[in-house]
Design a protein that fits this description.
With about 190 residues, the protein is an alpha/beta fold. The protein has one domain: Spore Coat Polysaccharide Biosynthesis Protein SpsA, Chain A (Alpha-Beta Complex). It has eight helices and nine strands. Strands 5-4-1-6-8-7-9 form a seven-stranded mixed beta sheet, with helices on both faces. A two-stranded antiparallel sheet has the order 2-3. Helix 4 packs antiparallel against helix 6. The radius of gyration is 15 Å and the shape is globular.
Length: about 190
């Protein structure tokens, strides 16, 4: 059982997530894909009013309640309020739309089999912390980062046990295909 978590950011990021790709808003495509394997969908944003008329009523829209640490604060909101033990985390601004649901299932299986706190996608041998499945227990490490005033998501991986899975390996093993979208992200980096 997983919660799907979309980190949607503020107004600028949401504007990108609302762009249409193949006739569908990018964020609608993310939600649709997540609904195939997630029993709960959470969106964390600073601008919930922009999404309320767009997303399904069953989607939980959260704001940061411990602001000041950027994406770490967003992760805190999702992990603190998730109803599931595993969280499939994605960034709405990423250049590549998240791997299909089958990849999230594979990441979660790898995480459990290895006894890890998280399994993240490796792109060019670099971990992508916002393309992964995490154990809800990572909240403790997120809390530590917030107490330290840390905002870099990459620091989360330094505090937890994680495994990586190459993006190409995921697509080959699951017969899934990452697909590109035209939305660029100018303001976000992996840390």
């Amino acid at each position: 059982m997983m919660s799907g978590v979309i980190l949607a950011g503020g107004e600028k990021a949401i504007a990108r997530a609302l762009r249409r790709i193949d006739g569908e808003r990018a964020i609608e495509g993310m939600i649709r894909e997540m609904q195939t394997v997630c029993q709960e969908i959470i969106i964390v944003t600073d601008a919930p009013k922009l999404l309320l008329p767009i997303v399904p009523r069953s989607t939980r829209i959260l704001t940061e309640y411990l602001p000041g640490c950027g994406t770490i604060s967003s992760l805190h909101a999702a992990f603190a309020l998730s109803r599931k033990n595993a969280l499939w985390v994605v960034d709405s601004e990423a250049e590549t739309v998240q791997l299909p649901a089958a990849a999230a299932v594979t990441l979660n299986e790898r995480r459990r089999m290895q006894g890890a706190d998280a399994a993240v996608v490796l792109r060019n041998n670099e971990p992508c912390p916002l393309f992964g499945v995490y154990r809800q227990g990572c909240l403790e490490a997120i809390n530590e980062l917030i107490r330290a005033g840390e905002s870099r998501v990459s620091e989360l991986l330094n505090k937890i046990a994680w495994v990586g899975m190459d993006e190409a390996e995921l697509t080959a093993s699951q017969q899934v295909h990452a697909y590109e979208r035209s939305i660029r992200h100018d303001d976000w980096s992996h840390g």
